[in-house]
Amino acid sequence: MIIKTIKLNNFRNHSSFILECKDETSLILGENGYGKTSVLEAIYILTRGKSFRATDPEIIKRGTEFYRIELEYQTGEKSIATFDGKTKTFIILDKKTKRLPKNHKYPVILFTPSDLNLISHAPSRRRDYFDRIFSQFNEDYGVSLSKYNKAIKQRNELLKASNLTKDMLFSWNIMLAKYGIRLHDYRKSFTQEINQVLTDTYRSISKNQDEVYINYKTEANNTTEQTYLKKLESTLDRDVILGHTSFGVHHDDYIFEFNHKLADGSASRGETRSIILALKFVEAKMIFKKLNKNPLILLDDVFSELDETRRHCLIDNFKDNQVIITSVESV
Predict the structure, then answer these.
(1) 3.40.50.300, 3.40.50.620, 3.40.50.720, 3.40.190.10: which CATH number matches 3-106?
(2) How many CB atoms lie within 10 A of CB 262?
(3) What's the rounded mean pLDDT across residues 139-147?
């Protein structure tokens, strides 16, 4: 699928906006505050099903009651999303649905300036980042993540109840053990797959012999569903005091190592940017390998953060993809 046009109504600061996309690279130029990122956000909603930065009520243009976005592919097929202040609706092939159908989702590589700080971000930001990647690789990963998050939310709410009993938590503990182990296994496998090619990809950018490695840190190592369940039960008293679940894969982290040291602190600013570039290239290759699709590339004002060498590397690696770039200057 190649995007032909994207139309916005009452979306962020756009009353009305139309972008005619090119087959290969489209550039959206404008000063900060122009609403460039909003265009990428709208595309993301109609290719992935939700925004990458906000909830729907935050997206509606101030003073209006709805937003509408329409995406047309070069095949002539159209996807529409509307939000009336309460309900978001997708219209696909004249059929209305509350969620974007799986067969109408398209893989996307999103690159924002904040990604360049991924190595030093809080663990929750890294988890969110890799969850977004892995959900594109594998449909069951996204389903398992959704069910795990639902269970952790319900369990945490019950932990604050004055009439709490162990029986009230049992079904949620079962869900957490089942989907927690499943997420652990996926995360371990996908991280290993990334590590197999990450150093070579980094070296193709940096032209040296440095090594890069992602260390998947989890409390669930060597854990089965049964032992996971027992751990949840054994930490109940502590969890009641804390008011939240203290054990589980929702504490997982991805630690970047550079030449066998923590990258956060040992890698220079330029080396850090090369690591993130390499990760993006690996992500795109894995999507093509697993889905047989060249992902859509959305680059949000990242060229100003990269030197000329890394800019050219970015362009060369994504020459077979449709790329949409936002920038404050010509690139």
Answers:
(1) 3.40.50.300
(2) 13
(3) 96
